[in-house]
Predict the structure.
Amino acid sequence: MKSPEIVLSLNEIMFYFTRAAVGAGLSFGLAEDFGRSSIWIAASGLDPARITSKTLKSLDEAQSSLCASQTEIGAKTVLTPSGGKQLSALFAGPSVCDWILETKEVSDKTQHFVVEKVDHPFLIAAAVGALKSGNWEICWQDSGGTLCNVLTGQNGNWKTSLEGNEIFQQHSPSDVSIKSAESSLFSSKKWIEKNTFSEKNSQDVLESGVPLYESWPIIHKLFSRCLVASTEESHKSGAGAGLVDTD
Amino acid sequence: MEAEKSETTHIVTKGMRSPEKVMRLARMGSSFQTRLSFMRSLTRRISKEKWRFEKLRFEVDEKGYGTSVYVVHTPERTYSLITFTNEVAPEQRTDRVVAEVWDATFNLFDGIPTEADIKRLSANTPKQEAGRFGPSELVLARANKSLRLFEHVASRLSEGKQPDIELLASVGYLMRTTAVYGSGKFGCADREKISNRSEMRGSFQVELITVYLFRWFTIELVEYVAKQRGGRKAVSLNPEISKFLGIGNATGLGMAPFLIKHPVLIHKWVLARETALSRVVALESHTPESLSLFSKFMFQATQHIAEWNVEDEQQTSRIIKTREDLKQLSNWFANEENINQPLIWERILRFAEANFSLEGQELTVSLLLESHGKLVDELADDMQTSTGIELEPSMSLNQLRELLQKSFNWALEIDFDDPEKQRRFWYYSEEKLEPRFGDRYADPGAEQEMPLAVARDVFLLNKKIKSVSDDISVGKFVQNHPEFRNIVRRVQTVVRFPYAEIRDNIVDAEMRPIDLLRFKLAFFGASKFDPKSELWTRITLFQGAPLPDQFVGNDSDEWAFPFCPDIVAA
């Protein structure tokens, strides 16, 4: 088994990933939401760099858009990317979360949300999971036409129809549907055999850290854009503490 | 929203000092430690729970260089301080984050380390930020000697003499930390790993346990070096002198962003202190015991402040004024007419507010709390939070506008069209990620500014929403204007926490970061603030606190305002 490039704490995941998103062109508020999604991925025992780096690159290379229009048609709300591009999950995820928080105050549970042409569907699930706001079912079709699902539960638990490396391979633009689920669904026959992530994964991560593999340099490179080059002047006058200490 | 509004009203009407008064930089920069400071709650816990301390390993050479493991056993767990000491060339000595070698580097380890752990850390800890750590390491830190005092103490003890007490008082510590990293930095354990442990209840307890153990280590180290030099002739430090030795600390800008990034936590800290003060001043009557305690601590504070001498001219004049304030307070207190009337504590506070400098006022607050431990100490248990900063997308834009007018008037009154009102900016340097404070119009990097300019961002948000229709939701607004998502989320959260926000402009041309540092360090329990510029300060930690073998009786919590022991060098 190959060695990780680095093992980070969850606090470092938040620090580096939030700023990597800023480095890729996201505003700080959306970048913080991305940081939280990255922590949710990491706390599940998955490599957040491997899952998110392509999305950040898509944004950085202007292949994905941060512009969309939202329309309501009966119980359905649709988020459609503007300008013919695919929609960045880094924008769509927080939009879905905002809709969930608004929907919680509405009694009509038939309401659902559709995000069209999302560049990385799994990151919508990560945003919803990180929100920790009850049971939601997130569905999309992968590039081969297979239906993929993620079901979020209480206490940060979640299940998915994806197996093994499939989670890391969800990079094809797809329409994603988000709808409220009954809490009983989590233990239903349909979901009983599915890949499950629980609070225990999170405890394990706190005891062992988050290993990041070959995609870490991409995150770090984007993060580095948030740093300011050190000059002789800023070295001397821009920071506290004495340059010489012979006290 | 109604419940949140009433919470604000409730707090303000309880006779507490208002956020408008308390959360100003000038007053924050005049703060003193109190009974609720984190060091004080730690030593109370050590005493109450009878923590046991043990020197597990001390493998150092005659100069004091080597590896040591000092252990503390709490009722439920054991923590180990693993320290590596080595020689440092004079030209390599610096207090800065950018340093690369230190006299001592250390970790707080979760449990007792194995040989393999120590070997692994010996290859990483001396490198500090350039090393990597894991969840078994709770803290990473380093320190440099006060060369003149360490050498003096080692030399005197080796000759069978106690150190010169005046020199000792002028420094106050044998070593000075220049960084103490916790909460997941450089791979160390996340705060979440330990936050549910009873001994970690409260803020910064794990960092302060580390510093406390390290203080013990520095005293044992200097005694050991003296013994190696002097053999049988050498003596140990007088216990009263040992107790008077704290740990120094050099604090730069790294602390400042923390205060802005954790508004709800800051609210909890200040709320605890202001609640404590309101409880004390609400007491209609007083007891002989409380009068006696107040008198005792006023005397200690007078001695303590008399020994507080710094090079900085501005701080020196503030100290001189504080000494005068204390003298006035003492005279007021000596007048029987004053102490024989009800509501003495409230009248003391009012007297201070009417006559004292800001430092004098804040010192008075500290004294009022100091003499009422039974009334206020339990508030230290509620100086933490798990509340995050959350967006409320269903709120209408009109409601958001009302919140801005109601709770952020102080920010909206600042004219940010004036370039001087945002001359400064905060950023991370690529050099070891050191936080720096730049001049927007002279230095490169303003486009990489940290999002800390709350007042300016509120000003810009207010300007923007004036141009947008009222009848949309906040969710819709931030979808259309994601650049405001961060500040909207903050506004919606902090309106429920009146002491959360620093009510000043932290990017103003005249802003002094040192005020932020002192505020935070006072909550830690620091004393002897010694500003070296507007960007950094030296302080003393744990000066006067009992050492591990000195926790006896009820006086283990009465170490506030330490002053030089009355001991003549032998």
Summary: The longest strand of chain B covers residues 52-60. Chain B has 24 helices and eleven strands. Chain B has a mean pLDDT of 93.
